[in-house]
Design a protein that fits this description.
114 residues; alpha+beta; 60s Ribosomal Protein L30, Chain: A; six-stranded mixed β-sheet; globular
Length: 114
């Protein structure tokens, strides 16, 4: 069985199947924030969605980080490293990408275990 949360006409925020949680790309609510602020907002959104599915950041299996500008890599990493739990850092890829809105600086996609 597949469980979907926050289903919209284009996408769902979350799909859960066979004990695996798939999150849609998470972006910041405040597009005017700098990269540190947007990163914190995205990580908080990930925390909230994982909690809703009975999981948490220690159970992340994989993360994909999309940055609009690689000049933000160090600042994003500072927020990431403050957020992750030592000993539970997931495999991660970070790439530069043109995001859907020019004011977005970061989008993160996460796959986690329930």
């Amino acid at each position: 069985m597949i469980q979907r949360l926050d289903v919209g006409p284009r996408m769902s925020e979350v799909a859960v199947h066979n004990g695996t949680i798939y999150l849609a790309g998470q972006i910041a609510d405040d597009a005017d924030a700098d990269i540190r602020g947007q990163t914190r907002q995205v990580l908080a959104a990930i925390d909230a969605l994982l909690e809703r599915t009975g999981s948490d950041k220690t159970r992340i299996l994989r993360a994909e980080v999309f940055l609009a500008d690689m000049a933000d890599f160090a600042a994003m990493n500072a927020e990431w490293e403050a957020w992750v739990v030592p000993g539970h850092t997931p495999p991660r890829a970070t790439v530069q990408a043109a995001l859907a809105r020019p004011e977005w600086k970061i989008e993160i996609v996460v796959t986690a275990a329930v």
